[in-house]
C-alpha cells in the first residue's frame, strides 16, 4: 500500500512541476509580447510550449464522470473479453473529442490486448474507441490505467505526381505526408528557389524541420514562423516557399498555411476554392508572417497543393482559375490517380521546355463509415 501511495504522490508532484514550468513559459510569453508585440515568433513559441506542457499534465481536459448506464455498459464490455474494470472516467478535449480512462486488470490468467477491449467498448457503447497512441497495449493481472481515444471522424488518403525541369534527375521540390499525429494529418510542400541539388537541399531542410515541429505538437503557423527565422539567419540567398494543409480528423477543421507558395485549391462537392498567397518565401525577411486560411472540410473533399512550376506551365492569363477548372472537371477519386491526371492535363499544353520543377499533391478526405 505504501508503494502505491508513493507512486501517486510522485505523479502529482510531477504534474505540479510541469504546470509551474508551463506558467513560467506563459509569463515569458507575456514579457515578449509587451516588448515585441503579438507577432513575435519567440513569444508564440513560448506560448505553444506552455500549451504542450499543460496538455501533458492533463490540463485542458475536462473530466466527466460516466453515468451509471454507461459505466455498466463499459463493465459488461470488459467482462466479455476477460477484463475487470475498477473505475471509469471520461475526459473531453478542446476540439470536442473524448478520451476514456479505464482502471482495469485481466480477470483470468493470461493477457488481453487493449485493442480487444477497444472493440468491445465500441460494440457496447455505440461510439468507436481505439487505444491511445503510446499507451499500454496489453492488459495483465496487474491493475493499471488504460486510455482509449475517440476514433477519428475522418480519414485521409494521399497522392502525388512530380516532374523535374528538363527531365533532370534531381527536383528542387520536397514534400511530406504525416498521417494522424495527435489527431491531425499534415501534407506539406517546399519549393527551393531554382533547380538542382542546391534547391533540393534547401527544400529538404525545410520539410525536415516542419516534420519535427509537427510531430512535437507545434501548430502549423508557429512551425512556419520558426522555419522562416532559421532560414533568415543563414544569409545564404537560398529562400524556399512553404505550403501546408493541416486537418483535424475529429471536426474536419483544416488550416492552409503559406510562406510565398503558389495558390492552393480545395474541391468540395464539385466547387473549387482558390487559396491565394501574399507572403514572402521563408528566409527573405526575418519578420515575414505566413498566410493562413481556415476552412471546414466535408466528406469527399480534396486539398491540392502545387509548386509554382505547375501553374507557370499553363499558357493562360489567370492560371489559378484555369487550374481550378481542370480540377473541377477531373472525375478520378483516388488521390494518386487524381494527382497524375492533373499533371497530365497541365502537360497537355505543348512546350519545348518547362521553366521549373513541378509537383502536385492531393489530400483526399472522407468520413469513417
What does this structure look like?
This protein has 369 residues and is α+β, with helices and mostly antiparallel strands. The strands form four sheets. Strands 1-2-3-7-5 form a five-stranded antiparallel beta sheet, with helices on one face. The protein has a five-stranded antiparallel beta sheet with strand order 8-17-16-13-14. Helix 1 packs antiparallel against helix 2 (41-56). It has helices at 2-36, 41-56, 68-80, 114-125, 196-216, 220-232, 308-312, 319-329, 335-347; strands at 62-64, 83-92, 98-106, 112-113, 129-131, 138-139, 144-150, 154-163, 173-181, 184-192, 240-248, 253-259, 264-268, 271-275, 291-296, 301-306, 358-367. The longest helix is centred in the first third of the chain and has 35 residues, at 2-36.
In brief:
The chain has nine helices and 17 strands. The protein has 369 residues and is α+β, with helices and mostly antiparallel strands.
Keywords:
disordered N terminus, five-stranded antiparallel sheet, 38% helix, 369 residues, alpha+beta
Give the overall shape, derived from the CA principal axes: elongated
Structural class of the secondary structure composition?
alpha+beta
Helical content (DSSP H or I, runs of 4+)? 25-40%
Tell me the total number of β-strands.
Answer: 17
Mean pLDDT: 79
Layout: helices, strands, pairs:
Blueprint: H1 2-36, H2 41-56, E1 62-64, H3 68-80, E2 83-92, E3 98-106, E4 112-113, H4 114-125, E5 129-131, E6 138-139, E7 144-150, E8 154-163, E9 173-181, E10 184-192, H5 196-216, H6 220-232, E11 240-248, E12 253-259, E13 264-268, E14 271-275, E15 291-296, E16 301-306, H7 308-312, H8 319-329, H9 335-347, E17 358-367
Amino acid at each position: 500500500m505504501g508503494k502505491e501511495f508513493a507512486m501517486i504522490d510522485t505523479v502529482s508532484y510531477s504534474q505540479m512541476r510541469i504546470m509551474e514550468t508551463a506558467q513560467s513559459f506563459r509569463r515569458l510569453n507575456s514579457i515578449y509580447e509587451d516588448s515585441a508585440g503579438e507577432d513575435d515568433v519567440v513569444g508564440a513559441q513560448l506560448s505553444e510550449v506552455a500549451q504542450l506542457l499543460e496538455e501533458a499534465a492533463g490540463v485542458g481536459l475536462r473530466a466527466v464522470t460516466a453515468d451509471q448506464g454507461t459505466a455498466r455498459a463499459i463493465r459488461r464490455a470488459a467482462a466479455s473479453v476477460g477484463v475487470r474494470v475498477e473505475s471509469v472516467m471520461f475526459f473531453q478535449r478542446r476540439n470536442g473529442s473524448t478520451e476514456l480512462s479505464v482502471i482495469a486488470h485481466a480477470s483470468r490468467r493470461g493477457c488481453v490486448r487493449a485493442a480487444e477491449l477497444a472493440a468491445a467498448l465500441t460494440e457496447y457503447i455505440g461510439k468507436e474507441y481505439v487505444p491511445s497512441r503510446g499507451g499500454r497495449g496489453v492488459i495483465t493481472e496487474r491493475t493499471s490505467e488504460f486510455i482509449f481515444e475517440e476514433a477519428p471522424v475522418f480519414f485521409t488518403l494521399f497522392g502525388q505526381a512530380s516532374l523535374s525541369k528538363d527531365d533532370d534527375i534531381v527536383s528542387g521540390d520536397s514534400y511530406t505526408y504525416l498521417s494522424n499525429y495527435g489527431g491531425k494529418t499534415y501534407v506539406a510542400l517546399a519549393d527551393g528557389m531554382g533547380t538542382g541539388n542546391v534547391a533540393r537541399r534547401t527544400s529538404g531542410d525545410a520539410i525536415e524541420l516542419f516534420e519535427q515541429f509537427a510531430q512535437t505538437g507545434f501548430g502549423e503557423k508557429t512551425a512556419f514562423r520558426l522555419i522562416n527565422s532559421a532560414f533568415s539567419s543563414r544569409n545564404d540567398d537560398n529562400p524556399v516557399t512553404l505550403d501546408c494543409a493541416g486537418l483535424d480528423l475529429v471536426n474536419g477543421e483544416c488550416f492552409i498555411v503559406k510562406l510565398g507558395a503558389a495558390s492552393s485549391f480545395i474541391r468540395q462537392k464539385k466547387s473549387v476554392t482558390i487559396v491565394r498567397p501574399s507572403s514572402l518565401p521563408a528566409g527573405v525577411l526575418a519578420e515575414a508572417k505566413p498566410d493562413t486560411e481556415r476552412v471546414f472540410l466535408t466528406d469527399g473533399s480534396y486539398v491540392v497543393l502545387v509548386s509554382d512550376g505547375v501553374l507557370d506551365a499553363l499558357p493562360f492569363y489567370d492560371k489559378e482559375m484555369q487550374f481550378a477548372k481542370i480540377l473541377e472537371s477531373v472525375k478520378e477519386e483516388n488521390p494518386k490517380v487524381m494527382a497524375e491526371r492533373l499533371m497530365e492535363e497541365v502537360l497537355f499544353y505543348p512546350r519545348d521546355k518547362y521553366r521549373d520543377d513541378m509537383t502536385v499533391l492531393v489530400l483526399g478526405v472522407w468520413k469513417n463509415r
